[in-house]
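Pipeline run #58 for the internal structure catalog. This entry was flagged by the ingest filter as a single-chain record with no existing model, so it goes straight to prediction. Upstream metadata was stripped on purpose; only the residue string is passed forward. Reviewer on rotation: M.T. Logging verbosity set to normal.
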Amino acid sequence: MNVNMKLPGIGESSEEYFVLEFSGGSPVLSAHQIAIREYARSLAGYDFFVRHIAREMLRTDVNICVSAQKSGSYESHLHAFIDTIGAVSSILGILSFFGVSAKSVREALSRLQAVIVRKYKHYSGDMQQYIAELAEYSILSDGDKDMLLKALENEPFLEALDDFTSPLDSDGYDMIRVVGGGEELFAVSKADRQFFKFVPPAGEKTEDFEDTVELLYISPELIKWKFKGQETFWADVLDVSFLEATGNVRSTELKGVKYDCQGRKVLRRKRGSKKWISTYYIDKIEERQQQMSVF
């Protein structure tokens, strides 16, 4: 797959070509074809990988589009339009850390891809060892270090590398190579695939919210309440005053009434799952007072 990288600097533009190659003993690959599911997931992962490092480390926006299909092959030509959004001088320390020259944004983007992937392989996927290098690198400012930590530990970024290398999980896929400027930038083999797999950790996070809602349903035990506001959700109502005031009121009289509420949306995720499960808690709720019009 040929990737045309167009990298505008300040008042100028440049172009670079990359080739993303899938190889192995698969009959499909031998026929110059590739399964849509595997190809799409890998391509989307590579797209995010490039856009993330370009924006976070080169202060550059990247937009990659499929522009043509090469007949009789699984290769695709991609055209990327890239806009610089920050001064190169602001990232000199970061580029130095990666051993990258600031003379050409085009070359820097190619080099960053190669260095990051090779570091993953060198540390067997344990990027904490790589991140530990940051603390000992005196050229980097604290701001640069914080930015790199944020970039390298970004979950969507880790998921993108997982997606990009995912075809290697399938039989017959042995290698993914990226070539730029006629030279191999990096290659990921089936044996390397384990270093790029991302297993989301278990987690919990809380988001506070305020909303005007309408009551849709109350469970028989009065434990769960269903509301419709900016979204429809079930919630545990913890406002004792509200519960006492509505305890002897028929549910039919409460339905359709507008309420102002404040609460928390708690999101939990099991290890290995990318899906967050939401639980809503309403800490304060009261009937919305109608605004009187003044003429």
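catalog note: The mean pLDDT is 80.
catalog note: The chain has nine helices and eleven strands.
status: ready for reviewer M.T.
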